[in-house]
Amino acid sequence: MELGLEGARAVISGGSQGIGLAVAEHLVKEGASVSIAARRKDILDASVEALSKHGTAYGYVCDVSDYDATVQWMKDAAQEMGGIDIVVHNATGSGQPDGGPDSWRKNFEIDVLGMVGMSEGALPFLEQSERAVMVQIASITGVEHHDVPISPSYGAMKAASIRHMAQRAQQWGPKGIRCNTVAPGPIYIEGGAWNNIKDNATALYERDRDWHPTKRMGTAEEVARVVTFLASPAASWVNGTTVRVDGAFTRGVDF
After folding, report:
1. 32, 243, 95, 209 alpha-carbon torsion, rounded to 10°
2. Burial classification of residue 149, based on how many CB atoms lie within 10 Å of its CB (0-12 exposed, 13-18 middle, 19 or more buried)
3. Among 18, 45, 94, 222, which has the highest number of CB atoms less than 10 A from its own CB?
4. Residue 34 in 3-state DSSP?
5. pTM of the model
6. What does the alpha-carbon distance between residue 30 and residue 33 come to, in Å, rounded to a whole number?
7. What is the number of helices (H) and of strands (E) in the chain?
8. CATH superfamily, region 9-188+219-245
């Protein structure tokens, strides 16, 4: 299938590793230019170098919990790439299990306000695009209780981010901007959260692994493929929806 991403211009938060980096790599290989943001310059630089082997990539040091800094990133990225067609918010603040005020604040500022800053900062450029789209990376924890040791703020803010995208689809659809959410289930990434759980809470890892019908966890690659499709003109009639990428981990049936 021809996705029609040649020449597209994308911004991706949390794009230096994990799912964000996998999304950036897929978009670059499809012919898009990408601007990825992260807080650590060393990891960011290494990721941009790797992406540049496949196409055009830029790196931007940005903490998306800072609204003004995020809006500035959108302006700078648009100047570098000649505009913005695709906004992917992947950065997340996985709070501590105690769920104290700081944990709630962190998740709100990154998971919700991060996309607010990206979407509002990118809006003038998206309005000029003929293939404008936003994709929010949420989690199945936003649609179904997941009994793992993370802050209760995590699921609550992921649910809020899903609601935010659904509302944007209605508000900005007339502007020609599609807005969708991808909700991954447990995704195993080397050095990531589930790698840590596997090493330090093996029983919990095995429980969730075996809850999948295929007895394995998903990969960043498998999530990235779905995000890439949703970000492309090939998904032109997909708007205002949440796509679960979880290998049937969740048991709910949507009617």
Report:
1. -110
2. exposed
3. 18
4. strand
5. 0.95
6. 9
7. 9, 7
8. NAD(P)-binding Rossmann-like Domain (3.40.50.720)
